[in-house]
Write a structure and sequence with these properties.
Elements lengths: L3 H13 L2 H8 L3 H15 L4 E2 L5 E2 L1 H23 L8 E7 L1 H5 L2 H11 L2 E7 L5 H6 L5 E4 L8 E15 L1 H7 L6 H6 L2 E3 L6 H10 L8 E3 L3 H8 L6 E4 H9 L4 E2 L6 E10 L4 H17 L5
Helix pairs in contact: 1-2, 1-3, 2-3, 6-13
Pfam family, one: HTH_1
Family: Belongs to the LysR transcriptional regulatory family.
Keywords: DNA-binding, Transcription, Transcription regulation
Amino acid sequence: MLDYKLVEAFASVLGQGGFEKAARALHLSQGAVSQRVKLLEEQAGCVLLVRSTPPVPTPAGQEMLKHFRQVKRLEADLGQGLGSPGQGFDTLAVGVNADSLATWFFPAVDPFLDAHAVLLDLSVDDQAATLGLLKAGEVLGCVSDRAEPVQGCRAAYLGDMDYRLYATKSYKMKYYRDGKTLEAAEAAPILIFNRKDVMHEVLLGRALGARPELRNGFYLPSSERFAPTIATGRVAGMLPDQQAAPHLERGEFVDLLPGHVFTVRLHWHCWNLDSGRLAGFTEAIVRGARSLLIQRP
């Protein structure tokens, strides 16, 4: 049997990003927290935590963290079922991609948050990487571009987001005066979310017949600032239709690659737990997303 005071200390070190912050959160001395983590590792018979800055879990530690969060989720549901929901708010850890967070996510889940005493602990990553957060036990559920559920989880289709490459008319005249060529694409400055972002390369490759070697990337890890930055005329960039629509209506943007669309199919993944709270949130996000996103077979 696990001593959950020890497991709580271990999870707090990871959640707070260090032993000192975990000690403050648990109202213990730093030495007491360190001792609890050491005792847990002795009970488990393996190292659970890499003592780096910040600390990170080993593969065994990831499994321990996942187990702890599942137990905490079930305990919270049990309290509600027994008529003693406890004080304060319930917290759901969720992974989501930045573009979803900037567009449809909150409109989809706002009714649920208005009706329940629930707080969200959001982790933001690329839609291809959020599933790793779920596998590691860092979140209860996530928005991902992967359709197949991982072991111990379930998945539901949310909808599609269509992206196009947008720019101002002045940008198009400056960098694509002689038409859409591989050489023009390689020389033109382009907005990129981060080093994981290859959406623009894929779309340009489809349109031009070969992927360009982009030499002038402007890296901006903020979905909210993409459209305003494109509007300056300095760069082109990929935008979902939801964010581009008002700029198109005002005639500020043009589609640099008409007829070429990059579609991201989004799915909701969550642990396969008998949790009423998680089931309620799952129902809300699926229903909300399907009312806001493009639905395709």
